[in-house]
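Troubleshooting log. The previous structure file for this entry was overwritten by mistake, so regenerating from the original sequence record. Sequence copied from the archived sheet and checked twice against the printout by T.R.
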Amino acid sequence: MKNKTVALTGTTGAMGGEALLSILQSPENFNVKCIIYEAEKKIPKFVRKTLNKYKKRITVFRGDIARLEDCEKLIQGADYVINCASLIPPKSDHNPQGTYLSNYIGTKNLVDAIISSGRNGEIGYVHIATVALYGNRSYPHVWGRVGDPIISSDYDCYSAYKLKAERYVLDSGIKKFVSLRQTAVLHKYMFANNLKDGLMFHTSWNCPLEWVTDVDSGIMCKNLVELDTKGELKDFWNRVYNIAGGKDCRVTGFETIDGCFRYLVGTGAKKFFKPDWNIARNFHGVWYYDGDELNSYLHYQNESFKGFWTRVHKKHRLFKLGKYVPSPLISKLAIKRLFKNTNSPAYWLKHGKEGRVKAFFGSREKFEAIGSDWNKYPLLCEGNLPDGSKIDYEALKNIENAKPYLLNHGYDESKPLESLTLEDLRKAAEFRGGKCLATDYKAGEIYRKIDWQCLDGHVFSSSPYTVLKGGYWCPECCEPKPWRYGALAKNIPFYAQVYFDTHTEDEVDDVYPLSEDEDDFIIDNK
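Regenerated output below.
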C-alpha cells in the first residue's frame, strides 16, 4: 500500500517545523510535501536539519500560498493538507497587507484548490486557527469554549484575517475539514523573539492564558494523520476544536512573564517590570473549558508550562543572570530599550497615538491610574480583583468550577446539535439581535447554509454550525472593517456579555480604523 502524503505549510515556523519532524518520525513512513515562502531568506537550523535528514521522503518547493497555482501544486497527490502558515505577531502588527495575503488569501486558495481538484472529500484539510478569535478575556469570563462569540481585538490584524479565513473554511463546502484553534504556543524562538519587539508589553497581567508547547503541537498533527490513516478518528471531522495545554498550562499573563524570567534569569517579573508598562486590555487568551475534547482524540498533552521552561533551560545551558547582574541593569538593557519600538505602549503614549492608548488602556487617565507600585496592583493570580475583593485563584483555575463563568450561547445546549429545531435556531438568532429566515430547516442539517438577518438588516447565508459552533454572525457587521465591537455589544446580548467585562457604556460608539496608517486617532460615531 502506498504511503500517505501530507502537504504542509508554515514549515519554517515554530509549530510547522515541529509538525514536520513529528510526521516524518511516524512509523507510518508518511511522505511530506512542503511549500516554503519564496521570500524566506533564512530557514531555521532546526528545520534545515529535518529537511536534510528525511530528504528521501520530502518534496520541497519555493512558492507563495497567496497564489492559487502554488496551492494547486502543493495539494497534488496529497492525502492531508495541514495549514500551519500564518503571519503572526509581531510581524503581523507591522505588515497588515502581508497578513491579509498569508492568513486569509492563502487559506482561501488552499480550500479552493481542494474543492476544484476533483478530490473534495478525499483530502483531509486541517486548518490551524487561533485563540485570538475569542479576543480579549478577563475575569469573570476567563473560561471559553467553541461557540463563544468571535471578537477580534482592536488593531489586531492577525486575528482579523484569521477570522475571515476560518469562516471561509466553515462555509466553503469543503467536505473533509477540521479547524483547530491553537492556544498560545511555547516555542524555542519565544524568548529571543520577545526581546526584539514591543509585543512583550501586549501581555495583559491578568489575562487567562492556557499554553501548549511547540513539541506537543507537532505531536498532535502527527497523531491526527496517523490515527485517521488507521481509521480510528470516528466522528472527528467537520468540526471546530480548541487546542489546549491542559491544567498544568493554565496561567495568567503575569505568571507567564514571571515564570519565563524566573526559569531563565532566576528572578521574577516584579524586579524587571512595572505594572503600567503592559497593556490593561485588548489582548487575547482564555482557558479552554472544552480543551480535553481534542486531547481525547489526539492524545498530545504531555508537557507542562514549567516543564517547557525547564527543557529550554537545560538545552541552551542558560545561566541565572539574576545572580550575577543587577536586576535594574537587566531591565534597562533588555526591556526598557523596547520603549522606543512602535509596538510599545510607551511609544504610543509619548507620540500621541490616542487610538491605541484608548483601545489598550481605556484612556490616558486610566493608564495613569495603574501606577508603578506592584503592592497596589490587583493581580488575579494572587487572588485579587480590581474592586478590592478576593477570590480563590486555584479554585478558579479548576475546570470543575468553570460552569458559572461560561458565556451564554443563546440556545438550549443540552440538546445535541443535530437535534436542534427551527425554533432553536430562531432563539439563537434573537440572542444575536437578528432573525433566522429559514422556513424549511430540518433537524440535522447543520452544515447546510441557510439565510439569517442581522440587526442592521443584512441578509447572509451561513450554516447553523458556523453560527452556533463557529461563533460567527453577520459577515458585514461582525468583521473588523473597521473594528466596531462596541456598537455590536450595545444592542446584541451575545457580544455584550463579554465586551463589557473590560469596556464601559460610553465606549460603544468608538470605532478603530483597520488601516495601520490611521492608528493615531479613533473615529467617534457620536
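Residues 519-526 have pLDDT under 50 and may be disordered. Archived copy saved in two places this time.
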